[in-house]
Amino acid sequence: MKKLIGFISAAVILMMAACTKDAPGPIVEKAMNDMINGNYEAFIDACDLGEDSLPADQVKQGKELAISMLKKTMDGIKEGKDEEAKKKLPKSCKVLDEQIDGDKAVVELEITSVGGETSNSKIQLKKNKAGVWKISNSNDIMPQAPAMDLGEEGAEEGAEEEVAEEKTEEAAPEAEGEEEPAEDAADAEEAPAAEDAPAE
After folding, report:
1. Quick one: 97 and 188 in the same domain?
2. What mean pLDDT do residues 86-109 have?
3. Alpha-carbon span 38 to 11, nearest angstrom
4. Element (H, E) at 127
5. Rounded to an integer, what distance in angstroms lies between the CA atom of residue 114 and that of residue 118?
6. Are 143 and 77 in contact (CB under 8 A)?
7. What is the DSSP string of 133-199?
8. How far apart are CA 40 and CA 67, in angstroms?
9. 141 neighbors 43 (Cβ within 8 angstroms)
10. Is there a single domain that holds both residue 131 and residue 38?
11. What DSSP line would sit under 43-83, residue for residue?
């Protein structure tokens, strides 16, 4: 009897541990730590990529693209020269609050940056058809690439595009203006003819 009670108690504890691990809070915390540690695939796996509504091949392509973009952003900041951007990278996190409402949940996460600053983010999750919690607003915790970090080539290309746009805009009014003189010229040719008529 004692063995049976012990077995039941152990099973309940294991079930509680499993449920806690699969709760929204721990899922968000693990996903964030995965991103911090460079395990980008695991982070993207924790996000909602539209598995319930999109074909499998589109989900796969979306996942590969998301991993590639996240890696490029993170590596670009880490290896770049923008020290301010490096300071904003997440260093650690902890769950402050967790609210569950049916198949939706909100987790308040405190994120500490490399520079020592703390900020709070509210992460939204929803259960997919398989009953797994997925992060639905991952952009709120993903670092953004510095806006001006284009490099020399990117800056030159951007400048060339701006110049091309300006030339296009300038050419359009000129083209329109060229039509008007043509009309005036026609009127000018007709005008003398009208003046000559009374003289006859």
Report:
1. no
2. 96
3. 34
4. strand 118-127
5. 10
6. yes
7. EEES-GGGTSPPPPTT--HHHHHHHHHHHHHHHHHHHHHHHHHHHHHHHHHHHHHHHHHHHHHHHHH
8. 6
9. no
10. yes
11. HHHTB--STTTS-HHHHHHHHHHHHHHHHHHHHHHHHSS-H
Separation CA 34–CA 74 (nearest Å): 12
Q: Most distant CA pair in the chain: distance in Å?
A: 133
Are residues 138 and 45 part of one domain? yes
CA 45 to chain centroid: 15
pLDDT at residue 3 is higher than 80: no
Query: Which pLDDT band holds residue 101 (cuts at 50, 70, 90)?
Result: very high
Most confident of 76-90, 135-149, 175-189: 76-90
Claim to verify: residue 194 and residue 182 sit in the same structural domain = yes
Q: What would the two tokens of residue 157 be?
A: 């290309």
Distance CA(45)–CA(63), nearest Å, equals 8
Same-domain status, 20 and 97: yes
Each residue's pLDDT tens digit, 128-157: 999 999 999 988 888 877 664 445 444 454
